[in-house]
């Protein structure tokens, strides 16, 4: 009996959610739209994975020699999780910019939730637009431009959000990309 009620509630909730997602909003009045990977994933050759494995093995060996088994387990877990998360290819999502905000797939951000944006454009190496959210503990949103004209995007976005013009690629970002 209780299972039937739970199943009915789940079904009702799923139907309401589906109906709600079909209702157009002002976020759906898109001015710029393109498809981009959900996150940037850089190609890594076999040599990179071999070096990564050697480094993980060295840190794990040191932890075992130092009898710090918790650190050894953490290093091993980090290596496994990193390899598993980078094994899958990112999904393509639709990016949309409207007069009231940013839409990434089904996630929406109004311009008052975004404190700044910057565009790093040096083809073919880097072609990204990054949004810094107003909430301090949320990560920046980095989106690949996928052939979009950066000057058109800059002109449009600068009317709604302040641009961080001095922002350059950091050493860490360069190393991650390499």
Briefly, what is this?
The chain is α+β, with helices and mostly antiparallel strands and 178 residues long. It contains five helices and seven strands; from the N terminus they run αβααββββββαα.
Keywords:
41% helix; alpha+beta; extended; 3-stranded antiparallel beta sheet; 178 residues; 4-stranded antiparallel beta sheet
3D architecture notes:
The protein is of the alpha+beta class. The chain is 41% helix and 25% strand. The chain is built from five helices and seven strands. It has helices at residues 2-22, 46-65, 69-85, 150-157, 171-177; strands spanning 30-37, 92-98, 101-104, 107-110, 114-122, 126-133, 141-144. It has a four-stranded antiparallel β-sheet, with no helix packed on it. Helix 2 packs antiparallel against helix 3. The mean pLDDT is 79.
How many beta-strand elements? 7
Tell me about the largest β-sheet.
4 strands, antiparallel
Helix content: 40-55%
**What is the overall shape?**
extended
Count of DSSP H/I helices: 5
Q: Helix-strand pattern, N to C?
A: HEHHEEEEEEHH
Low-confidence stretches: none
N- and C-termini, Cα separation:
58 Å
Q: Which strand-content bin applies to the residues?
A: 15-25%
Question: pLDDT average, as an integer?
Answer: 79
Q: Compute the gyration radius: what is it?
A: 22 Å
Structural class: alpha+beta
| Side-by-side strand order of the widest sheet | 1-2-3-4
């Amino acid at each position: 009996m209780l299972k039937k009620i739970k199943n009915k509630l789940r079904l009702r909730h799923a139907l309401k959610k589906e109906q709600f997602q079909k209702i157009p909003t002002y976020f759906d009045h898109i001015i710029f739209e393109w498809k981009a990977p959900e996150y940037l994933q850089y190609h890594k050759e076999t040599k990179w994975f071999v070096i990564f494995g050697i480094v993980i093995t060295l840190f794990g060996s040191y932890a075992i020699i130092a009898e710090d088994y918790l650190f050894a387990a953490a290093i091993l877990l980090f290596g496994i999780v990193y390899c598993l998360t980078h094994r899958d290819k990112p999904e393509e999502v639709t990016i949309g910019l409207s007069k009231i905000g940013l839409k990434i797939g089904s996630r929406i951000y109004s311009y008052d939730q975004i404190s700044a944006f910057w565009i790093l454009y040096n083809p073919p190496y880097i072609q990204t637009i990054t949004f810094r959210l107003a909430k301090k503990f949320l990560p920046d949103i980095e989106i690949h431009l996928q052939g979009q004209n950066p000057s058109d995007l800059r002109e449009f976005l600068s009317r709604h959000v302040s641009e961080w013009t001095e922002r350059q690629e950091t050493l860490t970002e360069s190393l991650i990309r390499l």
